[in-house]
């Protein structure tokens, strides 16, 4: 019998998702479509009779906005929401702001796929000359982290994402789960992937092929040792889910941009 | 953008307090309170209390304007507090969105909930006045320590409120079935003293989004007001209320409202007009 329920949710579309650019640590709101995705997710969870007890998000507005919209749709606004940089999207370093399809045209689809989906390849670090460097590191929120500003990442592989996520998972999230609280983690594509890898024991090679759709709640049912009792389940209409997965996979493909 | 002192009906209550602030002390800390705007039940003029009514569209706009007023004045916060009722939480969310500080830590507590109106919860204020008489209603609304009739198990909203999951950690002694203003303040102040004050003293900039009566508790305490004086104070809705405090957390001047003069004046008049019996 499964003991604990855990939901992972990758936030929906933001403005840069629409433009197919690596958003990463740049702080953006959801687009109108992303807002709808979050509301639908909340509606679905409510319809299926789930109630939440605790929510965890990153420090990035789009994950927080998603959490608010989901809990509002469920009538669970009172539920505690805890925020941490350790759930932030993967830091894409110097690639932040670059368009994925153009990158694929210049470097080849395979190279882009490797940067996006390999386990331990770190993109080149962001430097002060990058147009978004100060937008990120001058932001007050990064003075509130449990590491000093200068020790926050300048670029990350997926492995490095998991390395900084695990202490938060172990020390903050797991104790809540073990109190038999239904937890929602409202986060990002790569922070969700990293956590899924850890929980399900996915290999370094296999994680490359794992793509999480946006706005679709991922249900994990865990035993008392936090081992999954079955594979994770994507909740909702299966046709919609397959379309959502395909949409994310297409982002990495080379496309000529409209002139 | 004008910072307006309270005007209209509360001028007399304020005069007394203005005289107390004659000596200008240095502000060590700044605190902002905001009372949520119109809820769907406010619209219907019903005693809301612990019923979890949502904001009306007007209430949403009030919160957005409050956020805009804070944004225009460049306010930055470090930590936020609110109740477990959605009308306060959503007000806070709308404000945080307006000032682009959605990443701030938010602590929710039942201790900042609105006063529990017991058996009156859900009743239309005008009907209650017609049924019990204006005088009795006035006593319940205006008395400091006389509670309304309790909400018993037969009440329509008993299980929706008393058995809601959000209160599962409260002991039987803690979970109210009705409250006087005195009761509300008695359960709000421990949270203020034990959780909020230490944060202020650490230099954290605090924003509290809550309800008319829980905020009255904080104001009464900050300004050392009498029971009667607090009963005469109607905090405006959707308008950021700014306190500048000395190092002992005593206000160095009267509370200030952020917003345009007309918004402030209209809001205060609207609250004072409620509760009169209508044929």
Automatic annotation (TrEMBL), chain A:
Enzyme Commission designation: 5.4.2.11, 5.4.2.4
Catalytic-site annotation from UniProt: 11, 89
Give the matching SMART domains: PGAM
Pfam families according to UniProt: His_Phos_1
Taxonomy, superkingdom? Eukaryota
Enumerate the UniProt keywords alphabetically: Glycolysis, Isomerase
Keyword Zinc-finger listed: no
Tagged with keyword Cell membrane: no
Recorded GO MF terms: bisphosphoglycerate mutase activity; phosphoglycerate mutase activity
Q: Which reaction does it catalyse?
A: (2R)-3-phospho-glyceroyl phosphate = (2R)-2,3-bisphosphoglycerate + H(+); (2R)-2-phosphoglycerate = (2R)-3-phosphoglycerate
Q: Where does the chain bind substrate?
A: 10-17, 62, 89-92, 116-117, 189-190
Which residues are annotated as site, described as Transition state stabilizer? Answer: 188
What InterPro entries does the database record attribute to this sequence? His_Pase_superF_clade-1, His_PPase_superfam, PG/BPGM_mutase_AS, Phosphogly_mut1
**Which GO BP annotation is one of this protein's?**
glycolytic process
SUPFAM superfamilies, alphabetically? Answer: Phosphoglycerate mutase-like
What's this protein's function?
Plays a major role in regulating hemoglobin oxygen affinity by controlling the levels of its allosteric effector 2,3-bisphosphoglycerate (2,3-BPG). Also exhibits mutase (EC 5.4.2.11) activity.
Q: Which family does it belong to?
A: Belongs to the phosphoglycerate mutase family. BPG-dependent PGAM subfamily.
> What name is this protein filed under?
Phosphoglycerate mutase
Q: Which organism is it from?
A: Paramormyrops kingsleyae
Automatic annotation (TrEMBL), chain B:
Instruction: Give the main EC class.
Output: isomerase
Any one GO molecular-function label of the UniProt entry: phosphoglycerate mutase activity
Catalytic site? 36 (tele-phosphohistidine intermediate), 114 (proton donor/acceptor)
Note the PANTHER family from the entry: PHOSPHOGLYCERATE MUTASE (PTHR11931)
What EC number(s) are associated with this protein in UniProt? 5.4.2.11, 5.4.2.4
Binding residues for substrate, per the UniProt record?
35-42, 87, 114-117, 125, 141-142, 212-213
Q: Which CDD domains match?
A: HP_PGM_like
Name the site position(s) for Transition state stabilizer. Answer: 211
Q: Which InterPro entries match?
A: His_Pase_superF_clade-1, His_PPase_superfam, PG/BPGM_mutase_AS, Phosphogly_mut1
Q: Which GO terms describe its biological process?
A: glycolytic process
> Which family does the record claim for this protein?
Belongs to the phosphoglycerate mutase family. BPG-dependent PGAM subfamily.
Provide the alphabetized UniProt keywords. Answer: Glycolysis, Hydrolase, Isomerase, Phosphoprotein
Question: What would be one Pfam family of this protein?
Answer: His_Phos_1
Per its record, how is this protein called by name? Phosphoglycerate mutase
The reaction(s) annotated as catalysed by this protein in its Swiss-Prot or TrEMBL entry are: (2R)-2-phosphoglycerate = (2R)-3-phosphoglycerate; (2R)-3-phospho-glyceroyl phosphate = (2R)-2,3-bisphosphoglycerate + H(+)
């Amino acid at each position: 019998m499964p003991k604990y329920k855990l939901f992972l949710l990758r936030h929906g579309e933001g403005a840069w998702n629409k433009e197919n650019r690596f958003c990463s640590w740049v702080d953006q709101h959801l687009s109108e479509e992303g807002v709808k995705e979050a509301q639908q997710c909340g509606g679905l969870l409510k319809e299926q009779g789930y109630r939440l007890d605790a929510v965890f998000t990153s420090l990035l507005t789009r994950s927080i906005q998603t959490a608010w919209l989901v809990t509002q749709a469920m009538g669970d606004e009172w539920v505690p929401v805890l925020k941490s940089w350790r759930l932030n999207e993967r830091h894409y370093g110097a690639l932040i702001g670059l368009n994925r399809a153009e990158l694929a045209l210049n470097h080849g689809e395979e190279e882009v796929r490797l940067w996006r989906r390999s386990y331990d390849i770190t993109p080149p670090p962001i430097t002060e000359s990058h147009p978004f460097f100060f937008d990120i590191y001058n932001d007050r929120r990064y003075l509130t982290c449990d590491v000093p500003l200068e020790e926050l990442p300048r670029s990350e592989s997926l492995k490095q994402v998991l390395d900084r996520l695990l202490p938060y998972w172990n020390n903050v999230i797991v104790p809540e789960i073990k109190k038999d609280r239904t937890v929602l983690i409202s986060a990002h594509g790569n922070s969700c992937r990293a956590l899924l890898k850890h929980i399900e024991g996915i290999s370094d090679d296999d994680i490359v092929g794992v793509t999480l759709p946006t706005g679709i709640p991922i249900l994990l049912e865990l035993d008392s040792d936090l081992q999954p009792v079955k594979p994770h389940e994507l909740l909702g209409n299966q046709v919609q889910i397959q379309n959502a997965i395909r949409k994310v996979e297409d982002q990495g493909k080379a496309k000529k941009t409209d002139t | 953008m004008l910072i307006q002192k309270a005007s209209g009906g509360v001028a007399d209550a304020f005069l007394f307090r203005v005289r107390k602030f004659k000596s200008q002390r240095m502000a060590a800390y700044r605190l902002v309170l905001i009372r949520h705007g119109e809820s769907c039940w406010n619209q219907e003029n019903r005693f809301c209390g612990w019923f979890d009514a949502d904001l009306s569209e007007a209430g949403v706009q009030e919160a957005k304007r409050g956020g805009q007023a804070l944004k225009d004045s460049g306010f930055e916060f470090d930590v936020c507090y609110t109740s477990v009722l959605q009308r306060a939480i959503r007000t806070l969310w709308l404000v945080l969105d307006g000032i682009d500080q959605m990443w701030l830590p938010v602590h929710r507590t039942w201790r900042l909930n609105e006063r529990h109106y017991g058996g009156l919860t859900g009743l239309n204020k005008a009907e209650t006045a017609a049924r019990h008489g204006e005088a009795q209603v006035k006593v319940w609304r205006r008395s400091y320590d006389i509670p309304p009739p309790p909400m018993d198990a037969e009440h329509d909203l008993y299980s929706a409120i008393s058995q809601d999951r959000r209160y599962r950690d409260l002991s039987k002694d803690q979970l109210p079935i009705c409250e006087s203003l005195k009761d509300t303040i008695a359960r709000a102040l421990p949270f203020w003293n034990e959780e909020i004050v230490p944060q202020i003293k650490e230099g954290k900039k605090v924003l509290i989004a809550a309800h008319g009566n829980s905020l009255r508790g904080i104001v009464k305490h900050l300004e050392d007001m009498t029971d009667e004086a607090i009963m005469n104070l109607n905090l405006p809705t959707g308008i950021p209320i700014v306190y500048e405090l000395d190092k002992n957390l005593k206000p160095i001047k009267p509370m200030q409202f952020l917003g345009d003069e007309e918004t402030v004046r209209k809001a205060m008049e609207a609250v004072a007009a409620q509760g009169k019996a209508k044929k």
